[in-house]
Every structure is written in structure tokens, then in C-alpha cells.
Amino acid sequence: MESDRILGLACLGIILAVTALSGCGSIKEKTAPCKRPAELSSYGEDPRQDCGPMQAINSPAGTYATIGVK
User: Fold this and answer.
1) Any domain includes 13
2) Average pLDDT, stretch 45-63?
3) Which of 12, 16, 25, 69 could form an S-S bond across to 29 if both were Cys, CB 3.0 to 4.6 Å?
4) Is this model's pTM higher than 0.85 or not?
């Protein structure tokens, strides 16, 4: 009787451990692009256009005045 209970608890523990290790994410979350072989990933051209160099919009003095720093 006692050995059956221990065996049942051991089986339940194994089932819980396997369930916890398998995780609960979607297929997309479990198969990230970095884990896929390169030949299965698409390497299309980047559709974004170059915006040119970045430049400051606000002067430093105006920025400090806005946040209240003197």
C-alpha cells in the first residue's frame, strides 16, 4: 500500500517535471529565428531608406530650461 503511494507520487513528480521543462510558449516563441538554419531564413533586402545623418533639434540651453536644470 505504501509503496504504491510512493510510486504514484514519483510518477506524478516526473510528469510535473516534464511539463515544467517543456514550457508553455507558442511554437513561434520556441523556434526563434536565431535557432533556424540559415538556408530556411529569408535574407531579403532592407526596404528602409537612408534618412541621412542625425542632427540635434533642440539647443542644449532650451533642453535644460525645459527640464528645469540651470
Assistant:
1) yes
2) 84
3) 25
4) no
